[in-house]
Amino acid sequence: MPTYKMVVFTNPRDHRDDEFNQWYDERHLSDLLSLPGMKTAERYKVVLGEGWRYLAIYDVETDDLDGLMTEMYRRVDDGEIFMSPAFDEHYNLFAATSLGPMRTA
């Protein structure tokens, strides 16, 4: 089955970092991990680069990436995946597949 890394760059609304981080850590990650094919999730604070303050990386395993994304957006639209008012709706989402094995030093 194909595997992917889904990478999402996000920002909270102004001065709502605590609320945003609490929602993301305590609710949003669990909501997304309930989707079929979502395997792992890890969050980061961006320390180098402009425009984004937070980053999440998800490991995904699915034969139907488009179907997974459709289901995710359906759940958001239906309110099954709650989106905090602290979340700035402007975000960047990328999905990528590996070009080869991971290398180490």
Automatic annotation (TrEMBL):
It comes from the Bacteria. This is DUF4286 family protein.
